[in-house]
């Protein structure tokens, strides 16, 4: 039992933010965002989330008497300067792998990917470009970037005063800007009409060979239980599967966790609440376990779970946990 607990604790260490290839952080990506607008409502959102794909279908209505051409933004998570030490070589998100596909009333549309540098919400992109510095300065090495090493002490001091660099206790200097990426497009909302927008992409899920859910460990580390709203029925099912899957030494066979995040809060920027909201979460295989924080979850197939809401106003974002064990032939 001590050996099993030790293995579980070792797995827990891998699951925490660290420079480890064994654990990948989930990248929480959300829906289409619009600067708060009083004319366009989101009449329906039909959202499907699995480990392989996210699909969403929106219905929008322009309630004004004029056509509106608006810039629509699909916000991606920022690569933050404050988290520089947490990024390993494999943890820096590559947004080119998302494979975005968007249609408006059934017709595909072109998307543009824009990056900008921000310091405490202030856009410093032009200044960084003027200096000839790269926007993407975080490379996962933890080392002082090469362009900073070339600076003279007086220059470091001046740029620190400008807020572009921070000086550590040991005298090293690091950039301070976050890299914020938006997938954008122009869209016309016809006066008094509704349009249907669909969006599809491959989620940037995270995961780990984990041990936080073993009975001897979860009492010491209850954070995961709260993050994914894990209840007693989930734990009972987990314990039953864990006890049924033991190796020849009588220890539990290691399981894996997959984490998927989705930003729901951007739905608050449209006129009024989301009139008709539907969410389907697919856990992949019937033997997998899934948990997420939503009320009124209904099982609609061996792998799919549904939530429906009327006049839905998202209060927070969605965190999904999928637990898997290796099959007998793996």
Commentary on this structure:
The chain is of the alpha+beta class and 330 residues long. The two termini are 24 Å apart. The longest helix has 14 residues, at 2-15. The strands form four sheets. The chain has an eight-stranded mixed beta sheet with strand order 7-6-13-4-3-16-19-18, with no helix packed on it. Strands 1, 2, 14, 15, 17 and 20 form a six-stranded mixed beta sheet that branches. It has a single domain, classed as Immunoglobulin-like (Sandwich). It is flat. The protein has seven helices and 20 strands.
Question: Could you give a quick summary of the protein structure above?
Answer:
This protein is α+β, with helices and mostly antiparallel strands and 330 residues long. The chain has helices at 2-15, 125-131, 146-149, 153-161, 215-218, 223-227, 232-244, and strands at 23-24, 29-30, 40-49, 54-62, 68-75, 101-104, 107-108, 112-119, 122-123, 165-167, 173-175, 178-189, 194-201, 206-210, 255-263, 274-282, 289-292, 298-299, 304-312, 318-324.
Major β-sheet, in short? Answer: 8 strands, mixed
- CATH architecture assignment name: Sandwich
Distinct helical segment count: 7
- Uncertain segments: 1-34
Domain unit count? 1
- What is the third-level CATH name, the topology? Immunoglobulin-like
Strand composition percent: 35-45%
Overall SS class: alpha+beta
Question: How many individual β-strands?
Answer: 20
Mean pLDDT: 80
Looking at the structure, what is the overall shape?
A: flat
Helicity level: 10-25%
Radius of gyration: 23 Å
């Amino acid at each position: 039992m001590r050996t099993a607990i030790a293995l579980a604790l070792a797995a827990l260490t891998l699951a925490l933010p660290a420079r480890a290839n064994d654990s990948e952080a989930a990248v929480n990506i959300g829906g289409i965002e619009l600067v708060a607008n009083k004319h366009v409502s989101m009449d329906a959102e039909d959202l499907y989330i699995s480990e392989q794909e996210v699909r969403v279908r929106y219905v929008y209505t322009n309630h004004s008497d004029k056509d509106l051409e608006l810039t629509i933004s699909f916000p991606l998570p920022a690569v933050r300067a404050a988290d520089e030490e947490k990024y390993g070589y494999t943890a820096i998100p590559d947004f080119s792998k998302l494979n975005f596909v968007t249609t408006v009333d059934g017709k595909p549309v072109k998307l543009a990917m824009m990056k900008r540098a921000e310091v405490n919400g202030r856009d410093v992109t032009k200044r960084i470009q003027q200096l000839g510095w790269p926007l993407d300065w975080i490379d996962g090495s933890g080392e002082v970037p090469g362009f900073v090493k070339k600076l003279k002490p007086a220059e470091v001091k001046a740029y620190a005063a400008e807020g572009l660099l921070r000086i550590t206790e040991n005298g090293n200097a690091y950039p301070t800007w976050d890299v914020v990426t938006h997938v954008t497009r122009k869209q016309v909302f016809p006066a008094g009409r509704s349009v249907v927008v669909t969006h599809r992409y491959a989620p940037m899920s995270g995961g780990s060979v984990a041990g936080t859910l073993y009975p001897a460990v979860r009492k010491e580390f209850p954070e995961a239980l709260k993050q994914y709203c894990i209840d007693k029925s989930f734990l009972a099912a987990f314990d039953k599967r864990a006890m049924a899957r033991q190796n020849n030494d009588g220890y539990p066979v290691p399981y894996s966790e997959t984490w998927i995040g989705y930003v729901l809060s951007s739905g608050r920027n449209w006129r009024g609440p989301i009139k008709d909201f539907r969410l389907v979460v697919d856990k992949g295989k019937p033997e997998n376990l899934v948990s997420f924080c939503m009320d009124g979850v209904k099982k609609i197939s061996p792998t799919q779970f549904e939530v429906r809401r009327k006049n839905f106003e998202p209060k927070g974002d969605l965190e999904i946990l999928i637990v898997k064990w290796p099959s007998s032939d793996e």
